[in-house]
Each structure stands twice: as structure tokens, then as C-alpha cells.
Amino acid sequence: MPDIKQLHQQAIHALNQRDFADAHSLCVQIVKQDPFDHDGYFLLAMINLEVGQIAKAIKLIEKANDIAPQAEYFAYLAKCHSLRGESQSVLDATNNAPIEQINKPLALDTLGVALSRVGQHEKALAYFSKALSLDKHNAHFYYNSGVSSKFAGKFEDARAHFEHAIRIAPDYHQAHFALADLGGVSAENNHISRLQAAAKRTKTVDADMHIAHALAKEYEGLKDYTSAFDVLENAKSAKLASIGYEFADDAAFFDCVEQTQLKDLGNGSSQADDFAKAGDSSHQPIFVMGMPRSGTTLVERILSNHSEVLSAGELQDFGVAVKELAQTPSPRVLDVETLRKAMQLEPAKIGQRYIQRTQAIVGDSPHFVDKLPFNFFYIGLIRRALPNAKIICLLRDPMDTCVGNYRQLFSLNSPYYAYAYNLQNIGRFYNRFHTLVHQWQATGMDNFKLLNYQGLVRNPEANIRDLLTFCGLSWQQECLHVERNQAPVSTASKVQVRQPINQSSIGRWTHYRQHTQALETFFKQQQIPFES
């Protein structure tokens, strides 16, 4: 029988070779020989993490820490919790892994990425800095540090980190896109030749997507909108074909919400007392939601400039709270089964779980903004669980919204953005969204506000005064000056929202008008007006 040291070596080799079955068998032998072998449990956790069994990985890391707590174990525990959007648990794990106790660059980077995932970019930068001080030749460390620098508004630092990553790894397609996304392109200063060369070397659909979006950003900077659209269309068509998406997948979400949450609410004002009694009484949350690229980040920045409001970022916590309580078996947080089962849950338990999950970030702030766009699928559940919360839903011009979604590189691994690879699918998605939110408005809910983006940026002061009144907040002049808000921004609007409120994004879709005739026709048929 091999000794434990040999089994460890073999298990690590199998894990590195992604032979998870063999690695698992070897680790089981380790813990059978020595039930107190903490590394054996940790390796089992890494196997489960690799195959997507995050809950099992968490339990195994906790078992390893019970035997012999180590900073490296807490680093990967933070990673697991970050993948589940569990902000408080990430911070708890990080507190058990002080930066001065960690001298393994990969563990430092792992903690930095976990913190970045839950919006703690300034904290993340310290871990990335130490990782780079220990290993100056790792392109991933430079890239990860660049991402957090960008979200923290340190754009020149980000630019330098991305360039460094590309020098080390010329085909680092994510770094190419991240650099292009910073803007600053001119005829004299661009990366088009380098990107075109990189495009010829890509080997995967996802690499094509990153390089295509990088090229599109740079072509747009040179006002070559035809080339920008063409390169996006080629890459997105291939990506769509590779995932087998059908719009019916998303239509099922809208159908479910209309058949359950909307039906349950009925007349919002007549049931207000019932909801107030059933849910958690907290007044802290202000939910800002809407289609991606519709102005949600701008509204978050406006509100969080108020002295009584904290920006909590794009929290996954409401959906995760629902998922935990519903206990549905699917790996996705948002699915039809979970939405249906959620209607059977006690509203107060959902609200309490959400408030508990958010406390590590929001503390005792009188109010906080939760700006997850797709929370519009939970409007009725939020109303039940947190009847005193404010719900603000952005509505932007359909053509600007849809073209904005098409131009944006969303997470390639998320099923929730699959609609965005085709303009017609985006149009269908917007149409269902438009119908749904107007149905919510028609219920007369007193804590729901549909906010028009164009009206907001054209007449900021009047709309912001109205917005603050809706939220029960006093007028503060600083809310007009989003460019002074120094809080990190973890969204696609990270560059734009550091500018004063302006109208420059209105009508941007018209640059692509030669490619949008079918979408225009669709919205005319649906009688959804748009600015031309």
C-alpha cells in the first residue's frame, strides 16, 4: 500500500492533469488512512470546486480548517463563497487569512479575485500587489490587478497592468479586451493592428468574442461603425451557434413571473397592509434594476452620493436567499422551478435572510443600494419579503438599450446573458421586459417607481428631487454630481459614470442604423416607441 506522501503526490498530479476520478480515489485513500489529514480534505475540496460542486467544496475546506486552519485554505474558502455571491462569508474567510501571513502568490491572487467578485476592489488590490511582488512574471496576476484597478477608477494603473499582461502573454484575449474597454483610442494611438494579428491566432469561440469586442471598441473610437458591427456580428453568431440558445428559455422566466408574482399581488395598494405584516420590516434596501445598459449604475451613483445611502453594488444576495430557502436542486440561482417554489416561502424569512446576508457590507447605514439589473424577475417577491424597501426600475429607449446590450461583452459563462448574442433576441427580451414592468406599474404599488433614463439625463435636478422624495430622502445638492463619487464601480459603466451627468448616450444606436432595420420594424409592430 502506498504511503500517504506518495498518495498526495499522485493526487496532486492527477488533479493537475484534470483526471478528477483518479484524484478523488487517491484522496479518499488518504483520508481513510488518516482521518485527520487536513491536506487530503483540502484536495478533495479542490476536486469538487473544479467540477462545480461548490457546496461540497465549502464543507470539505471547513473540515480541513477544523483540523489545522491555514491561510491558504481560507483563501479558497473565500473563492468558493465568492462564486456563490456570498459577500459576508468572503469577508469572514478573508479576515481569517491576514495578508501578512500569506506568502504564496497564487493564494494571494485567489483572495484578491474573491474580494473583487464581491465588489471589494480596494481590498483586493493589496492582495494583488503582494502577489506581484512575489511573482513578477505572471500575466494573470497583472490582469486581475488591472481589473480591480479599473473598477476602482485607477485607469492608468489598469492600463499599465493590462499592457504588462499582454507583454508576458501576447494572446491573453481578456487583457486585450479590458485594455480596449478603457478607451482613449485615436488614429495615432490604437491597437487595431495588434488585435487583428491576435484575431488570426484565436483558437476558441470565447477568445474570438474577446478580441472581436476589443476590435469593435477601437473601431468605434475611430468612428468606423461598419467595421465595429461586422466584427461583432461574426463573433456573436458563432457564439450563439455554440450554445444552442432559444429565446423560449428566457420567455419562460417572464411567463412564470406573470403567472405567479403578478397574479399573487393583484392590486398593490389594496394589499399593502397584508404585505407589510408578512415581510421583514427593514427600510434599508433601495433596489435599482432594469435591463443591462439602461442607466442603473448612474442612478446608483446619484443615490449613493447622498449622506444616508451606501452603494452595495450588484448584490446576488436576494436571489441567493430565495434559492437557499427554496432548496431547489438546479445549479442555477435563477430558474423557473425556484421562482415557482419561492411563492410558497414565508416572505419574512426571505427578507430576514437577505438582510442577514448583506449586513457585512452595509453595516448600520440607514439605506443601501442593491443594483442587480435582473432583480426585476423578483419584484413581486421583494414586495412580499421587504415591503418597506424601495424598488426603482430603469426604462431606457428600446433601440439604445438593445444596441447597447449588443455592443457589451457580458459574462460568457452566464446563461442569463445568452439573449445578447443576437439583436432580434435582444429585441424580444426587451419587449417582454417592457410589458412586465408596465404591468407592475399598473398595480399601483407605492414602493415601485419606473424611471425614464432620457428624462433623467435631460432634466437631472427635477428628476433627482423626485427620486429622493420617493426614497424618503432629503434633498442634497451633491446627488447632482456623480463625477465626485469615488466609490468603486463593478459594472460596464465604470468609465462613463465618473463623468458629469450628460446626454451623450442618447441616440448612440443611430451609428448602427444600417444594421437595425429589422429591430426598428419589430418595435413598431409591438407599438413600443423609440427616438430616431
From TrEMBL:
<dbReference type="Pfam" id="PF13469">
    <property type="entry name" value="Sulfotransfer_3"/>
</dbReference>
<keyword id="KW-0802">TPR repeat</keyword>
<dbReference type="Pfam" id="PF07719">
    <property type="entry name" value="TPR_2"/>
</dbReference>
<dbReference type="InterPro" id="IPR019734">
    <property type="entry name" value="TPR_rpt"/>
</dbReference>
<dbReference type="InterPro" id="IPR026634">
    <property type="entry name" value="TPST-like"/>
</dbReference>
<dbReference type="InterPro" id="IPR027417">
    <property type="entry name" value="P-loop_NTPase"/>
</dbReference>
<dbReference type="InterPro" id="IPR013105">
    <property type="entry name" value="TPR_2"/>
</dbReference>
<dbReference type="InterPro" id="IPR011990">
    <property type="entry name" value="TPR-like_helical_dom_sf"/>
</dbReference>
<protein>
    <submittedName>
        <fullName>Protein-tyrosine sulfotransferase</fullName>
        <ecNumber>2.8.2.20</ecNumber>
    </submittedName>
</protein>
<dbReference type="Pfam" id="PF13181">
    <property type="entry name" value="TPR_8"/>
</dbReference>
<feature type="repeat" description="TPR">
    <location>
        <begin position="105"/>
        <end position="138"/>
    </location>
</feature>
<keyword id="KW-0808">Transferase</keyword>
<feature type="repeat" description="TPR">
    <location>
        <begin position="139"/>
        <end position="172"/>
    </location>
</feature>
<dbReference type="GO" id="GO:0008476">
    <property type="term" value="F:protein-tyrosine sulfotransferase activity"/>
</dbReference>
<keyword id="KW-0677">Repeat</keyword>
<dbReference type="Pfam" id="PF14559">
    <property type="entry name" value="TPR_19"/>
</dbReference>
